[in-house]
Amino acid sequence: MSIEIPFTKMHGLGNCYIYVDLISQSIDIPSYSDLAVQAADEHTGIGSDGLILIVPSNRADMMMRIFNKDGSEGKNCGNGLRCVAKYAYDHGLVDQKSFKIETLSGIVDAEVHLKNGQVDLVTIDMGKPILNRSSIPMVGENDEKVINEPIIYNKQNFDMTAVSMGNPHGLFFVDNIEKAPIHELGSFLADNHPTFPEGLNVGFIEKTADNDIAYRVWERGSGITQACGTGACAAVVASILTDRLPMDQTITVHLAGGDLYIKWSQDSQHVLMTGEAKTICKGIFYL
What we know:
Structural class: mainly beta
Number of strands: 18
Shape: globular
CATH superfamily of the largest domain: Diaminopimelate Epimerase, Chain A, domain 1
Largest sheet: 18 strands, mixed
Distance between the termini: 9 Å
CATH architecture of the largest domain: Roll
Helix content: 10-25%
Function: Catalyzes the stereoinversion of LL-2,6-diaminopimelate (L,L-DAP) to meso-diaminopimelate (meso-DAP), a precursor of L-lysine and an essential component of the bacterial peptidoglycan.
Order of helices and strands: EEHEEEHEEEEEEHEEEHEEEE
Strand content: 35-45%
Active site: 77, 228
Enzyme class: isomerase
Main location: cytoplasm
Radius of gyration: 18 Å
Subcellular location: Cytoplasm
CATH topology of the largest domain: Diaminopimelate Epimerase, Chain A, domain 1
Number of helices: 4
C-alpha cells in the first residue's frame, strides 16, 4: 500500500523544492532521503531540487530540514528559508510577521512582507558568515580566512575565496558570468574533492555595477540550480573581503532565476537577505 504525502511545491527565484508540513499533519515516512530522491525525479516524481520538511522545534517556531535531490541532508538553504517562512505565515503556523526558524546550522530570524494579504517578500537574518578554514570546513595547514587561494584544475589556477553561511561555498570571480566554467569546476569540487570533507557549493561572481553582481552556482548534491540564497550571501561577503564591494550597502545579486537583495552589516556582522518566495502547486505524492 502506498503512503499518501500531501505536498506543496514552492520556489525562490527558480530554486524549487517539495515542501512537506509535518507540523499540521503526522505522516509515517520510512526514509526522508528516499522520499527526496523519488519526489525530486522529474520523470517519475514531482521534479525539484530536493525536499524540505517543516517540522516542530523546541528551540524556535519551527524547524526546516533540507534534503538534496541525491538524498543527502543539507544544513541550510536561503531560498528554502524564505519559502518556509511564506508557507508558515500563509498557512497559519505563525501569527506574527517576525518569527524564528531552526536549521541544522542554527536559528535564524525571518520577517515576512505582505502583498494583498499574502507573503510576497521575505527577509532572513542569515547570521554571521563563517570565515575560518576549519569551520567551512576546508582542509589546510592554517585556520585563517581563505581569500584568493589557488585551486588547480586542468593545470590552471583559479583563485577561490571560501565562505560558509551554514553550508560551505567556494567563490570564484570571473569577467563574464556567461563564460564561467560552472560545470567543469562545479563537478570537480562539489561532492568528492578531498579538500572539502562536507562537499562544496561552487559559485561564480561577475561585478556588473557599483552595487550589483551576477552570480551562478553549482550546488553540492544538486548540480546547477537557478538560484542559491546562501550562495548569494556568500558571494556578497566574498566580494567585500576582496574589496570589490562596500559593507553596509544593499547589494543586488542577479541570479539565473531573479534578484536577491543582500546587506552585510558592519555593526552586527550579520548578513540580511531579502527576496521572493512563490507557491507553484499543491498535491498528493504517492510513495
